[in-house]
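The methods section describes the discrete structure representation at length, but only in general terms. An entry of this sort, consisting of the sequence and the corresponding backbone structure tokens, reads as follows:
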Amino acid sequence: MQAPVRYSPDVEVVKPDEGETIAALCQTFDTILQRVADDSGHAVRSVHAKAHGILEGVMRIEDGLPPELAQGLFAKPGEHRVYLRMSTNAGDILPDAVSLPRGLALKVLDAPGERLPDADGTTQNFIMVNGPVFQAPNAQKFLGSLKLLAGTTDRAEGLKVAASTVLRGVNRALHAVGVESSTLASLGGAPNVDPLGETYYSVTPFRYGDYIAKFSLRPVSPGLTARTGTEIDASGRPDAIRETVRSEMAGTEGVWEFRVQLCRDLERQPVEDPTVAWDEAEAPFHRVATITVGPQDSWDAARVQAVDEGMRFSVWTGLAAHRPLGNINRARNAPYRHSAEFRARFNGCPIHEPAAR
């Protein structure tokens, strides 16, 4: 196995039109944000608007990690409080019969070290989805898809439910012959799986101290792995996922392992194209921490208010040692902040980072 690639600034290739693309992304997100806010009277996130559960737990960083894994947040063993937010990826609040990819946002509290530029507070954020690749190779391609989706935001809900049923069937047929389609999944063809049993991936790469890595969160406790691949029947239940997670977490201790996948070949594990999966045979994942969440009310009103309404999750909120890399990550900075500022302004609720304890 090749040695991990060392980070240097020249692993990124910045395109000359990135500023224009990012401005257009903010404008398109404005369309989504404004329409949903006007229709409902309440502003939500421009992506992953609907949460299915808000959990509080503890991250335990492993002792005795080898030097290439003992980097950044994971350089020293210890414990950190964490919040987890489970969601689906649309920018409007859809009934759960429209099945979309699952997301998991993780906020690690009290992360010491040099901060990224304009990174508020002292937390380290990780944002993941339940698939190893992104749907577009760059921000320009993603912008094209987003413009199409913006036109249907908060519109034609019944058609979306019907289309999702058809797309799920198509996706199952493709899966049966070994074909995976992130595009079909993003349009409503994803399996309607229980988010507690899913494995999540950062999809995009990040600086990992002296190295470059992608991240993953995998369920390992029996109460979670028993739900892997289990589909939820959302017929006639617009919040079926939230209800299911709430029922399950009332009596479940969940344990996930936080894993790091070090880049070992920039050609085969590219930084600038997140549609390319990093082959685990060539670049394996390694556990660096575990996250434990005890039985709890996953839709506790006070926690939902504090986390879902009062906080934002961004890959650019964190340590300089985990700087987001690549075109898609660079394009996430301004729009994420823009979305949070819109929510704060429309709802009259300041967005803030949790205080250190």
In short: Confidence is low (pLDDT under 50) at residues 154-177, 183-188. The beta strands are 51-61, 78-88, 102-108, 124-129, 200-201, 206-208, 211-219, 254-262, 285-293.
